[in-house]
Amino acid sequence: MFMGYVAYYLTGFVGIAVVMASSFSMIMRIWDGVTDPFIGFVVDKTNGKFGKNRPFMVIGQIILFVTSFILFHVTHLLPENTTLRFAFFIVVSMLYYVGYTFQCVVTKSAQSCLTNDPKQRPLFAVFDATYNTLLFTIMGIVTSKLTVKYGTMYDAGLFHELWVITAIFGAIFTACAVFSIAPKDRVEFFGTGKPVLVTLKDYWDTLKHNRAIQMLVVAASTDKLASSAKTSAVTIVMFGIVAGNYGLYGAINGFVTVPTVILTVVVISTLATTLGQRKGMIIGSVGGILTSILLIFLWLFGNPTSITGADGGLHFGFFTIGYIILAVINGGFNNLSGNIVIPMTADCADYEVYRTGKYVPGMMGTLFSFVDKIISSLAPLIAGLMFAAIGFKEALPDVNTPYSTSLLYTGLFLMYGMIILGQLCNLVAMKFYPLTKEKMEEIRVEIAAIKAKAMQE
Questions:
Q1: Which helix (H) or strand (E) holds 203?
Q2: Backbone φ and ψ of 358, nearest 5°
Q3: What ranges in 244-312 are assigned the alpha helix state H?
Q4: What are residue 314's DSSP bridge partners?
Q5: For residue range 24-68, what is the model confidence (pLDDT) as tens digits?
Q6: Full DSSP string of 152-200
Q7: Which residue, of 15, 45, 61, 241, has the fewest CB within 10 Å?
Q8: Residues 6 or more apart from 423 whose CB is under 8 A from it?
C-alpha cells in the first residue's frame, strides 16, 4: 500500500517524468516476478527446525523494513542529480522486492498446510478480505489526512510519517503470522506427510499439465492488473478533482468499510463454503461486473460534488447514498472473486499431490505470483500512459489540479472499466477450471489415504 505512492516520490524528489515513473513500477514488478521461481524452489526444499515458511517471513520483513527506509529517507538527500538518484533508487528497490518476494511466496505456499477441508479453506478468504478492507480503509483515511496536513503529496514529511506507520504495522502483522502458523508449519502437514524430492523438471511438468493452476493464473493476474490500475492517483482524481474534496475520501470510505466487511463475510462464508470456491469466483465476478457498471453511471449522471455539505463536511445526498450502497455491494462481490484466489492456490497444490504425489506449494505460489506480477506490472504503465495522453507528462494530477472531462473518463476507466475487463476474464477461465466442489472432496479423501499409508510406514 505504501509503495503505491512511489510515483509521487519519483516525480517529486527524484525528478523523472510520469511515464518513466510508471515504467519504473512496471520494471520492478517484472523483477519481482523473476525472483519468484528461485525463492519458491528454495521454499520447497526447506524443511528445517523453524519449518518451511517462517524463516522466509521473518527475513522478508527485515529486508522490507530496511530497504523501504533507505528508499524514502536517503534518496532525496543525495546530490541533485536525477541520474544518480534514479540509479540509487533502482538498486535499493531491487533488494526491496527480494524481501517482498520472500513474504509473497509464503502467502501462497503456506495455505496448503493450514487445512484441506473444503468447508474450512474458503474461510481464509473471509479473514483476508476483512483484514485487507479494514487496513486499506484505515490507511486511506490516514493518507488523506496527511495530504490535507501537508497540502500536497510532494512532501518528505508525509512520506516519513506514512513509512513509520507502515513499518510498525508490518512488523506487528508479521509477528502475528509467524506465531499463528507455527503449529502447522511442520512436515506432517506438508502434502503426503513425508518429504518428497522436488526437481526443476517437476516445475515444467506442473506448468504443462496442471490445468487448474493455469486457469487460476489467468483469472487472478487479470484481476490483479485491473485492481492495480486503480492507483493512488486515480482516487485523488475521482475524489480530489471530480468530487472536489479529497479530504472526504476517508470519511466516505469509512461508511463503506464496515458494511462491506459484513457483506464479504456473509457472501464468502455462505457461497464459497456451500457451493465451492469455483462457483464463488463466478458469482463474485458477475456481481462485480454489474455493480461496477452501475457505479460508472452514477459518476457520469450524478453530482459527485454534492458529497460536500455547506459546512464542508460529508453531505448525505443522492450521490453520496447511492455511492455508499453500490460501493458496499461492489466491494463484497470483488472481495469474493479477488480474495478467493489465495485458498484456491492451495486447492491447486493439493491437485498436484493427487495428480503426481509431489508436494510443491512453493512452486504453486511462485508460478501463480510470477505470471500475476508480470501481467499486473503493466498496470502503473497503463495508468501513466493514460494520464500522459491527456496532458500529465511531467507530474501526476494532484488535489490542486483543475477538473476536466478527460480526467473523469480516465479515472472511471481505471477505477471501474479495468475491473470489468478483469472479471470477464475470470468467467472465461473458470469455464475450464477443473476443481469443482465434488472434485476437491475426491482429492481430499485420496490425500488422507496417502497420509494414512505414510504414517503406517
A1: helix 200-209
A2: -95, 130
A3: 249-267, 273-275, 277-301
A4: 308
A5: 777 887 787 777 777 777 777 777 778 888 888 999 999 999 999
A6: SS--HHHHHHHHHHHHHHHHHHHHHHHHHHGGG-SGGGSTTSS-----H
A7: 45
A8: 223, 226, 284, 285, 286, 288, 289, 292, 337
Residue-wise burial string across 199-216, b where 16 or more C-beta atoms lie within 10 A, e elsewhere: eeebbebbeeebebbbbb
Which domains are present in the chain? 2-456 (1.20.1250.20)
CA distances from 238 to 138, 191, 211 (A): 19, 47, 39
* Cell numbers describing residue 436: 469443482
Residue 364 cell numbers, joined: 504453486
Contact 9, 163 (CB under 8 A): no
Contact 75, 160 (CB under 8 A): no
16-to-85, 156, 395 alpha-carbon distances in Å? 10, 16, 9
Q: Counting Cβ atoms within 10 Å, is residue 270 exposed (0-12), middle (13-18) or buried (19+)? A: exposed
pLDDT at residue 80 is higher than 70: yes
* Backbone phi, psi, residue 341, to 5°: -65, -25
Query: Residue 302: left if φ>0, alpha if ψ -120 to 50, beta else—which one?
Result: beta
**Amino acid present at 357:** G
91-145 tens-digit pLDDT: 999 999 889 888 887 877 777 778 777 777 777 877 877 887 788 778 878 887 8
The C-alpha cell that represents 416 in the structure block? 471501474
Phi, psi of 210 (to 5 degrees): -85, 90
Which DSSP helix (H) or strand (E) runs through 6?
Answer: helix 6-9
Q: Do 238 and 411 meet the contact criterion of CB atoms below 8 Å apart?
A: yes
Give residues with Cβ within 8 angstroms of 441, minimum separation 6.
118
H helices present in 46-122, as ranges = 54-73, 82-109, 111-114
Contact call for residues 83 and 14 (beta carbons, < 8 A) = no
CA dihedral 117, 119, 122, 128 (to 10 degrees): -90
SS3 call for 311: coil
Cα–Cα distance measured from residue 63 to residue 254, given in angstroms and rounded to the nearest whole number = 32
CA nearest 362: which of 29, 46, 30? 46
What cell does 418 get? 479495468
* Distance spanning both ends of the chain, measured CA to CA: 48
